[in-house]
Design a protein that fits this description.
Strand content of chain B: 15-25%
CATH architecture of the largest domain in chain A: 2-Layer Sandwich
Helix content of chain B: 40-55%
Shape of chain B: rod-shaped
Shape of chain A: rod-shaped
Low-confidence stretches of chain B: 1-9
Distance between the termini of chain B: 171 Å
Largest interface: A-B, 116 and 119 residues
Radius of gyration of chain A: 56 Å
CATH topology of the largest domain in chain B: Tetrahydropterin Synthase, Chain A
Number of domains of chain B: 3
Structural class of chain A: alpha+beta
Oligomer: heterodimer
Low-confidence stretches of chain A: 298-302
Chain lengths: 302, 361
């Protein structure tokens, strides 16, 4: 009897589990589920946790990832308002918001997400072409404060795509959109290189000539300063000498006491100073003190 | 009920023969093996929920589709954890404390790591090589130039639940945001600012933009930006042209430095010269004044002596001076008087001019 109870219990448990598998399904937090009854969508479930269902083939469960998907569109060429070819690529974050609307449009194929992204790609392509055509190149590329409208351009593209998504009831939402890449067509890049190269040449030459001119200026400035300094010093020196002479003149007054003696002393000094070095003197007998010799010859003979 | 007769009937109907007994033995033993295996499987099934969380990660258990616990409490720290077996529980591991790293996918030319190691990526290209927009990444600058730039962003995940449950591929979303920040910053900086003049400003703009884009208000990626490194380079096609500009700038600075050195030297020398001229004048003045002063003093000293006997004084002084002068003189020639009472004649050959250089051979 005990064995039977156990068997029944195990059997009941197995039936219970099978029943659960048939009548219950789980919804993960990141998912949204669409339930179809005989192929017709009846309800979509976003609440995470276990839910009741009728078993297959009456009801079918279609799961969709409700999280934000990343999508990056093709790098496509557009013509700006001032006729420049500009390549742009944007990325979007999008998510399924209404599975009941999303399901009938995109769930036909094996990859509903990829299907939806094909549609997005088309919409983004149109939106980009429209927005790029409205703006000159300077709106994309210019310093802040000089007409850079990068952020506005992103908003405009987002606005167009959002309104299209809403108008078409795709059951999805664009969460964010940003420019991923900007570029130029291949043949244009070469022109840009040519232009950049000549710009570089101009810069190189400017550095050289500016440097030389500036150096020249510094040189002449330095020379001018030096001469000025010397000229100032010279005039100061002359003033100082003048002052010295004026002071000396005061002492000259002393000599007024006896000009004769002063004159004699000055001449004596001058004589002594002029005959200091390597001089040759020639005398005759009348020059004192050699006049003594004459006296000797006469006086001593006597 | 009917159990009794069955029991009674069995022995005669099924006589115990060795073969069937062996079969039932075998069945019984294999059944017990099956039971054992089943129990083992159940045990294994229950044990499959054990998992470990590493030091750099956190885990979240999802029970019947819902994360177990709210907010921070849902995060399981490092160690051994148990979750009920699938399909009741699932667990997801999130790298959280580890620093995540991502590098921009736009803006840099196609290059392999091996080429970067060997330095091959720095080889110049002919200027006529165009950029293939599908292969070569670059950014366009505010002055419509082409330049290469790449950003390496480091961040950590601040909100793992959002990171997992809000995004299919959150790290990809971070990459997109980073690419966007690079393009955005490049579109408003000029090429020279990006490469040399304002590298820090450019980097700051990238960092601010990416932090803004991933923030709660915008894309709410649940990450915190730690740092970003920006590397920029001129296109390989124009490497020489850019290098020449740099060289010219270096040369200019050198020329200017030399000019400034010359300026310093010249001005310093001139001011020293000027000072010495002033000093010379100063000392000349002092000498002149002192000279006159001392002469005047001496004059005052000798004046009384002179007044006492002017003639004698003059003679004495004259003789004394002459004596000194004659002592110092190098050559002295004394002319005696001739018989006619007149001095003898002396003829001097004055050779003031230098002797002639060119002498005939």
């Amino acid at each position: 009897m005990k064995r039977n109870v156990l068997s029944i219990a195990v059997g009941a448990l197995l039936i219970f589990i099978v029943g659960l598998l048939l009548f219950v399904y789980q919804v993960r937090k990141s998912e949204v589920v669409v339930v179809t009854r005989f192929g017709k969508p009846t309800r979509d479930v976003v609440e995470p946790g276990p839910h009741w269902r009728l078993p297959w083939p009456i009801e079918n469960i279609h799961r969709f990832d409700q999280r934000v998907q990343n999508f990056e569109d093709k790098f496509t060429e557009g013509l700006t308002a001032d006729n420049f070819n500009l390549l742009t690529s944007v990325y979007v974050g999008w998510q399924i918001t209404n599975a009941a609307e999303f399901f009938p449009r995109f769930a036909g194929g094996a990859e509903p997400i990829a299907e939806a992204e094909k549609t997005l790609d088309r919409m983004l392509g149109n939106a980009k072409a429209a927005v790029v055509g409205k703006h000159p190149l300077a709106d994309f590329l210019s310093p802040v404060g000089e007409g850079n409208k990068f952020v506005d351009i992103e908003k405009e593209i987002l606005g167009i795509v959002e309104s299209q998504v809403q108008a078409n009831n795709y059951g999805l939402k664009i969460v964010f959109l940003g420019v991923k890449k900007l570029g130029l067509p291949e043949n244009v890049t070469q022109q840009v290189f040519d232009r950049m190269q000549s710009e570089r040449k101009v810069l190189t030459e400017r550095s050289q000539s500016e440097g030389e001119a500036e150096a020249q200026r510094i040189h002449s400035e330095a020379d001018r300063k030096a001469q000025e300094l010397l000229a100032n010093a010279e005039s100061e020196a002359t003033q100082i000498r003048g002052k010295g002479e004026a002071e000396a003149a005061k002492s000259l007054a002393e000599f007024q006491k006896n000009p004769e003696l002063a004159n004699f002393i000055f001449r004596l000094n001058a004589l002594e100073n002029s005959l200091k070095d390597k001089s040759t003197l020639i005398f005759d007998q009348r020059t004192p003190p050699f006049d003594l010799f004459r006296g000797v010859s006469t006086n001593l003979v006597k | 009920m009917t159990v009794e007769p069955q029991n009674d009937l069995r022995p005669p109907e099924t006589p115990v023969d060795a073969g069937s007994q062996a079969l039932s033995e075998a069945l019984r033993s294999s059944f017990s093996i099956v039971k054992f295996v089943m129990l083992l499987l159940v045990a294994l099934f229950l044990a499959s929920g054990v998992f470990t969380v590493g030091p750099q990660e956190r885990a979240i258990i999802i029970r019947l589709g819902k994360p177990l616990g709210e907010g921070e409490k849902a995060l399981l720290g490092p160690g051994l954890h148990y979750s009920l077996p699938y399909p009741i529980d699932e667990y997801v591991k999130v790298p959280i404390t580890a620093i995540q790293k991502v590098r921009t996918s736009v803006g840099w030319f196609a290059v392999t790591p091996a080429q970067e190691v060997s330095g091959e990526d720095r080889n110049p290209l002919p200027v006529t090589t165009p950029m293939d927009p599908q292969v070569d990444g670059y950014v366009l600058t505010a002055d419509n130039n082409i330049v290469h730039s790449r950003v390496t962003l480091t961040y950590h995940i601040a909100d793992p639940i959002g990171f997992i449950f809000n995004f299919v591929n959150a790290s990809n979303a971070v990459l997109n945001a980073l690419d966007n920040a690079l393009i955005y910053a490049a579109s408003q900086y000029k090429v020279d600012d990006i490469l040399t003049r304002d590298v820090a400003g450019f980097k700051e703009t990238v960092r601010k933009r990416v932090a803004d884009v991933v923030s709660r208000e915008r894309q709410d990626l649940g990450i915190v930006v730690e740092d970003c490194q920006v590397e920029s380079r001129s296109p390989r096609q124009l490497q020489d042209a850019f290098a020449n500009v740099l060289k010219a700038e270096v040369t200019r600075n050198k020329v200017l430095d030399e000019a400034r050195i010359y300026e310093n030297a010249t001005v310093n020398r001139a001011s020293a010269d000027a000072q010495s001229r002033i000093n010379a004048a100063e000392s000349e003045r002092a000498r002149l004044v002192n000279d006159i002063r001392s002469q005047a003093d001496r004059f005052n000293d000798i004046l009384p002596k002179y007044r006492a006997n002017p003639d004698l004084f003059v003679q004495q002084r004259l003789a004394e001076t002459l004596g000194r002068v004659l002592t110092n003189a190098q050559d002295k020639i004394f002319l005696t008087e001739g018989h006619d009472g007149r001095p003898k004649e002396l003829r001097l050959l004055l050779n003031r001019e230098a002797p002639k250089q060119e002498s005939k051979p």
